[in-house]
């Protein structure tokens, strides 16, 4: 049996934690590969979506110019593709914890996971990690296709983009955890994630620049971490912007993470304890 | 050792408590079986001991560790088998599932591979574990569930109806494993509806009804609660309205044997006789009824008699 965490050295603890992370990744890959049809359809679906955007982008760019996109190199297709890729990260950050809990409840494995003495926060983080890696792979493939097949000019600062994505995921995961905490109690329907997803799609500049928003909505848009994250991501992917150049956006994301992550962990712990008091841990 | 002290738990919006001031001790190396009708609170009790439900009142502990205040330590010596059939990842093989849960339990490398081989052999699934879980029969799923509980070689097992829905061969196999665990000094809290199984395996038995622990004791102590002779009769359908006729029959038995204790469960009547001399007369009444008498049994009280008396609400 495993030693109590308080009695482990930090390197042993880290090794054990990494091994558990590996177990989740392996489980995710085995499960994903077993759904061969869904896997193929998912990949094909992504490329169909990409084609749609490419045609739309070409159509819109013909004879038109978009001054609002100049900051990102002026290419509409690149603008839309990055916006779409970004929403994948938003979706996985906000939804993966809820989806994990729901899936474990449906499998009947949630209670067995909890009694393995792996901390709840770690269990969710590992499952989230699998979803993030899957999304990262998917998005990277899409971007590669965009760059090489459609010959779209992109000047990429990989390190900057990676830091930006990491902070985006961190800040949004806090909100995702809050939603998961709520879903443990309500079972269906989580207003936090719903509001945030809707606001992101509408106000963060996914499909059009936030400059086109009226004053009040623009002010709300500037409060959303997704607006800053998407702006920074576009700059790093299209303009080779350095970390210094996007430092104000990264700082915003860092502050957002410092607020949302502790709140998220508090919410998920409170949600689980409420479910334990109500005897509804396995209910969905 | 497992202890429950004055445990109270009521589900939200429930009309009555699922567990009402339950106090219980399972001694080290003992098999303690909880009996009781459906909804008695057996599974809730197991979940409280696992830390999956927080009781409103009382304390539970495993090997001296409080299941709430020191969850981690209390779960360390614990092997859990819940009654649900679907508790694994469908797309993973039996072995991959065990590798996953074993890894989370802290087993790694050669140790986990060896241990998985050992437990698969114990549950008789060495060859079949390579197949995906979704292809397993109910019996195999139950045995794999048992294998998971065995993985970390815990000292305490909580087994919630481990044999429900399995064929006799698989049930027998699981019973053998439970007896083997007992030989190795493990402490086991078992719930079951199979009274023969309870009689065969248990060192001690407790009877839960509507959240109240009505009686505990060794199997013989439990049976000795009914020191009188018992008659059990089971009736089948023959077109006669069974409820009305049963009611008439019970009235006649009470006239014939006024101090006996009569309980009715569906199509079964159990009579605990105050005087053995009344037995013939009562049996004549039973066989002379307009109902179709399928089976009648007379003798010293069995665990089944005790169960029906307690479940039926009769005073023994």
In short:
The complex is a heterodimer of chains A (284) and B (316). Chain A contains 10 helices and no strands.
Structure description:
Chain A is mainly alpha-helical and 284 residues long. Chain A folds into 2 domains: 1-34, no CATH class; 37-278, no CATH class. Chain A has helices at residues 10-34, 36-61, 76-107, 110-114, 120-148, 158-186, 191-203, 215-223, 225-238, 247-278. The radius of gyration of chain A is 20 Å and the shape is globular. Chain A starts with 9 loop residues before the first helix and ends in a 6-residue tail after the last helix. The mean pLDDT of chain A is 86. By secondary structure, chain B is of the alpha/beta class. Chain B has 2 domains: 2-223, 3-Layer(aba) Sandwich (Rossmann fold), CATH 3.40.50; 227-300, Alpha-Beta Plaits, CATH 3.30.70. Chain B has 11 helices and 14 strands. Chain B has a 6-stranded mixed sheet with strand order 6-7-8-3-9-10, with helices on both faces. In chain B, a hairpin with a 2-residue loop joins β4 and β5 (65-66). In chain B, α3 (94-104) crosses α4 (109-122) and α9 packs antiparallel against α10 (279-287). Chain B is elongated, with a radius of gyration of 22 Å. Chain A binds chain B through residues 1-5, 16, 19-20, 23, 26-27, 30-31, 34-35, 107-109, 111-118, 273, 276-279, 281, and chain B through 9, 11-12, 18, 44, 47, 50-54, 56, 72-73, 75-78, 80, 82, 84-92, 96, 99-101, 103-106, 108, 132, 148, 152-154.
